[in-house]
Design goal:
This protein is 72% helix and 4% strand. By secondary structure, the chain is mostly helical. The protein has a two-stranded antiparallel sheet with strand order 1-2. A hairpin with a 2-residue loop joins strand 1 and strand 2. Helix 1 crosses helix 4. 12% of the residues are buried.
């Protein structure tokens, strides 16, 4: 176990910040694809995804889940889980980069 210094605090702060922003980024991506509160935007990637189902979008399909998220947003539990996953991934990447930095 290494010593705690200011760079350790910066890595933890970055992981927490990235975790907090992950649900916001995910909502931005889903909206950019064309899944919006008003429905699927014509001629968007979302429209292409919906068209790939041949008009038979079933409950629980990727299209249905993304549309549900696009119209209602993420639930508290989903946002919390995504935040935790984002923070864990950011911390893992920071730890990996730290180890790689010592190799060179």
């Amino acid at each position: 176990m290494g010593t705690v210094n200011s760079s350790t605090h910066v890595r933890w702060a970055a992981a927490i910040l990235i975790g907090a922003l992950t649900p916001v980024a995910l909502m931005g991506i889903i909206t950019a694809l064309g899944f919006t509160p008003a429905g699927i935007i014509a001629e968007s990637t979302a429209a292409g995804i919906m068209a790939s189902y041949g008009g038979l979008v079933t409950s629980g399909s990727v299209c249905a889940i993304l549309q549900s998220i696009g119209t209602t947003g993420l639930s508290f539990h989903a946002a919390a889980l995504i935040s935790l996953l984002g923070a864990a991934l950011a911390a893992a990447v920071a730890a990996l980069l730290r180890k790689v930095a010592f190799v060179y």
